[in-house]
Amino acid sequence: MARIAGVNLPNEKRLAIGLTYIFGIGRSTAQKIITRLGLNPDMKCKDLVEAEVNQLKKVIESEIRVEGELKREILANIKRLKEINCYRGSRHSKRLPVRGQRTKTNSRTIRGNIRRTAGSGKKQSAQKT
């Protein structure tokens, strides 16, 4: 099992897909890394040789921001937006959608509202007749 940037790559996935398990590496970045190193994108992650794993580690750690470093940078950017009191920062602090989405409907994931179906408003009687 290959371990790169603190993430275990899944054994049964193709290399191009397995690299996307690392936060900060998407499909296109994974393809660029693989072609640069001259690896086969269709090979399984379990078929990687130790030398190939070391090449991948070297390229990913030296040239691409991934995992903790990238998450810290994202949080720092959001914190900066909040501190300068810009519109995007205020939306972040109110936990509302930032990029212009509507809020009358939708935006349930960011607001945390759980949809409940409304009943008739009458409570059920304790007795059944």
From TrEMBL:
It comes from the Bacteria. Located at the top of the head of the 30S subunit, it contacts several helices of the 16S rRNA. In the 70S ribosome it contacts the 23S rRNA (bridge B1a) and protein L5 of the 50S subunit (bridge B1b), connecting the 2 subunits; these bridges are implicated in subunit movement. Contacts the tRNAs in the A and P-sites. InterPro entries: Rbsml_uS13_C (IPR027437), Ribosomal_uS13 (IPR001892), Ribosomal_uS13-like_H2TH (IPR010979), Ribosomal_uS13_bac-type (IPR019980). Keywords: Ribonucleoprotein, Ribosomal protein, RNA-binding, rRNA-binding, tRNA-binding. The keyword Ribonucleoprotein applies. One of its GO terms (biological process) is translation. Residues 92-129 are annotated as: Disordered. It holds the Pfam family Ribosomal_S13. Part of the 30S ribosomal subunit. Forms a loose heterodimer with protein S19. Forms two bridges to the 50S subunit in the 70S ribosome. Belongs to the universal ribosomal protein uS13 family. The keyword Hydrolase does not apply. One of its GO terms (molecular function) is rRNA binding. This is Small ribosomal subunit protein uS13. One of its GO terms (cellular component) is small ribosomal subunit.
